[in-house]
């Protein structure tokens, strides 16, 4: 009985020591480093934050690798095309925040801490990822080649990579092989005209199943379009030979030369090599289709479609050769179009608004 009374007296003291001991320790630490209870809570919060960051980063790495966004960091080089350095770059803008030093930002991009530089392989990936506005962006269809600029049409369903465009006739399209191989034109403003370059077009189209849309507009503002599935061109060794699959659309299958066998014999461009004024790879043995038509293009004997032709400002034209900006199955060979666009995206694409209205 006495023992138990003693125990009741002793136990609270022991318990008190156990309960108070951490406070004593804390008080010692508080003396040295401020508020102990607050520090422990802050440390726990930081640990939770770091654990969350780790989880998110791990997930991001897996996600990006799955979607092929990751590529080895390329050596930092200044692009040889000066126009590349004067336009916005989505990736670099993201990584550099709101820097006003556009040139240095573009020439010397700061890679993420993980040491990897990321580019979308085409405008459809960029569209899926960021839903940005239409404009010029840098893409990299092949990890073995440098990224390059092109116009992304994020309207008309979105995700279109543009590789040819005529608008006002200010850019000369009658050029040599090297220009058509490497690309030419302006890459800054919404209405700039350009040819992306056969090398870039080859890498852009070579990956797999795609859909090319050709948008056309006449001088009265009327629009039309043509679709081609699985559009591709071979490499330079094979002179960028044209291959394409099924046609659909409203403007007619001018690439195949129309419906008649005779027309197709002379004007079907499927299977034709690319020709320029200094490289005649057509099937017209008596002369050069590229020289007559003032364009680099795929010619047979010669064509029913030539979107790189001479830019006539009134539509209908006359001359020795049908060398205008021509889509013969829509407006005939003697009508030169005002606007043309050639653009591509994957055949299977989750379209946000639908497309096919011929919007340019
Ligand atoms: Ca020839």
Automatic annotation (TrEMBL):
Domain Fibrinogen C-terminal: 114-348
Location in or out of the cell: Secreted
Cross-referenced CDD domains: FReD
Coiled coil: none
Superkingdom of the source species: Eukaryota
InterPro entries tied to this protein: FIB_ANG-like, Fibrinogen-like_C, Fibrinogen_a/b/g_C_1, Fibrinogen_a/b/g_C_dom, Fibrinogen_CS
Chief location: secreted
Pfam families assigned to the protein according to its UniProt record, in alphabetical order: Fibrinogen_C
Any one of the GO CC terms: fibrinogen complex
Keyword check for Signal: yes
Keyword Glycoprotein appears in the UniProt entry: yes
GO BP annotations, alphabetical order: blood coagulation, common pathway; fibrinolysis; platelet aggregation; positive regulation of heterotypic cell-cell adhesion
Biased composition (Polar residues): 92-106
Listed NCBIfam families: GGGWT_bact
Protein name: Fibrinogen-like protein 1
Organism annotation: Gouania willdenowi
Gene designation: fgl1b
